[in-house]
Amino acid sequence: MYIIIDNYDSFTYNLYQAFAKQNVKVLVFRNDAIDVSGIANLHPEKIIISPGPKTPYAAGISNDVVKSFYRTIPILGICLGFQCIGVVFNGRLKKVGKIVHGKSTVIQHNNSRLFQGVPNPILVARYHSLMIDTSEMNKEFEFTAYTKEGNKDICMGIEHKRYPLYGLLFHPESFLTEYGDRIIKNFISI
User: Which residues contact residue 117 at a Cβ distance below 8 angstroms, ignoring those fewer than 6 apart?
Assistant: First the structure.
C-alpha cells in the first residue's frame, strides 16, 4: 500500500489515478490529517508527497515525513514535495525567473532510475513559481534532470545517492508530460 500526502492540491487525485492505474493500492491523507506515527503504523510500501499551492514551510507534515522515512521507505516528492525534500536537505527556496503554471518545458535527464526507458530530452508539465537553489544542498544528492532558463540550469529532478528518496519539480501525472506513466512505473519498481 502506498500513501499520498495531499498538500491541498487539485493534482492529488490525478496522482492517485496514475498510481491506481498501475494496480497499486493508494491511501490519501491531507497533510494535517495524519501524523508521522500514524503513517508508521500503516507500514506503507512507498510514500508520495503531492504538489500544493503553498511553500514547504506551510506543507503540514510533509517535511517531517521526509525526515522520518527517507532512509527506510521510498519517497517521491512532486513539485511542492520536491521543494520539501530540497528544504529538508539545505536547499534554498527561491522564485523562478518567470512563473510557469501549466507550461510545457523541455528537460534533459541523466537516465537515473526514474528515467529508465524515457527518451532524452522530453517535454514536461510545470506548475510552479518556486524552485530550489541546489548549490547549498546536501552533497548526498544527484541532480537527475534540468531545464534551461536563460543561461541558468533549473534543477527538475533529484535522487539521493544512498537512500530511496526522489524528487521531481515537474508533474509526471499531467497529460502535458511525455512518458509520465513510464516515470511512475519506474518509481513503483524501486
Answer: 179, 182, 186
